[in-house]
Design goal:
The protein is built from five helices and no strands. The protein is mainly alpha-helical and 86 residues long.
């Protein structure tokens, strides 16, 4: 019989990506509603003539902001940092 102590997996810092993504959820939902409205879906928010005049910069801004925020939070994951130290 082995006398080695059982060790728990190292879970320190695993909550960090979730804590960084949590404040992004509300703006991401609002941006998704805006994208839905620009694509011709139901009008859930009041219309803004500046957005309807030139929708391409708005679409690029919303999609890049959401992806940047999520990928930026993932880089603080301990598993990701151990696999890709650079």
């Amino acid at each position: 019989m082995s006398t080695e102590a059982l060790s728990w997996p190292d879970t320190t810092g695993t909550w960090v990506p979730f804590a960084l993504i949590a404040p992004i959820l509300l703006p991401a939902m609002a941006g998704s509603f805006q994208l839905l409205k620009l694509s011709g879906g139901p009008h859930l928010m009041p219309t803004n003539p500046q957005l309807t005049a030139s929708p391409i910069p708005v679409i690029v801004h919303i999609t890049s902001a959401i992806s940047c925020a999520v990928l930026g939070a993932v880089q603080f994951s301990p598993g990701f940092r151990h696999r890709h130290p650079k």
